[in-house]
Amino acid sequence: MDKITVQDVLLTPLKRIHNPKGDVFHGMKKSDLGYAGFGEAYFSTIHFEDIKPWKKHFEMTLNFVIPLGDIRFVIYDDRENSKTKGAFFDVTLGESNYQRITIPPGVWVAFCGVGKNYNLLLNLANIEHDSNEIERKDDLSEIKYSW
């Protein structure tokens, strides 16, 4: 298992059940650690070597699952009262490392498509999207990290 270096971030191994007619990919149950309620679920894609820049939610808990492809996530903690303030956590999830990452409110996340084919992300969020509870840094260099 990857060593988590940012407080309150969780990695949860998920089951992929093989079926000759089509596999079953587990995502989340309300009894799972990291479940904080349900607000919405959405899918997003990211192309190979593209990076979606930094964003931070103030209220939303993110639960990302990658059923197709591989996506590299970088989490940055700048929370004032966090034991891991200033820390980064870098992990690649997807077909070769099928886990769910739970990202709490208040930390930054950016991600990069590393699968050469189709990279599909599912977010199981605890609240509905609200553009007033998110901060974005469209310039990737605003948070110093070596991609």
How would you portray this structure in words?
It is built from no helices and 12 strands. It is mostly beta strands and 147 residues long. It has one domain: Jelly Rolls. The strands form 3 sheets. The protein has a 5-stranded antiparallel sheet, with no helix packed on it. Strand 2 and strand 3 form a beta hairpin. The mean pLDDT is 96.
Number of strands: 12
Determine and state the CATH class: Mainly Beta
The largest sheet, given as strand count, sense and whether it forms a barrel, is: 5 strands, antiparallel
Average pLDDT level:
96
Secondary structural class: mainly beta
Count of distinct structural domains: 1
Strand order of the largest sheet: 1-9-6-11-4
Fourth-level CATH superfamily: Jelly Rolls
DSSP strand content: 35-45%
- N→C terminal distance: 22 Å
Task: Report the CATH topology name.
Answer: Jelly Rolls
Cα radius of gyration in angstroms: 15 Å
User: So how many helices?
Assistant: 0
Specify the CATH architecture: Sandwich
Instruction: Indicate the overall shape.
Output: globular
Oligomer: single chain
Summarize the amount of helix as a percent range. under 10%
Q: Which consecutive residue ranges, at least 5 long each, have pLDDT under 50?
A: none
The H/E string reads EEEEEEEEEEEE
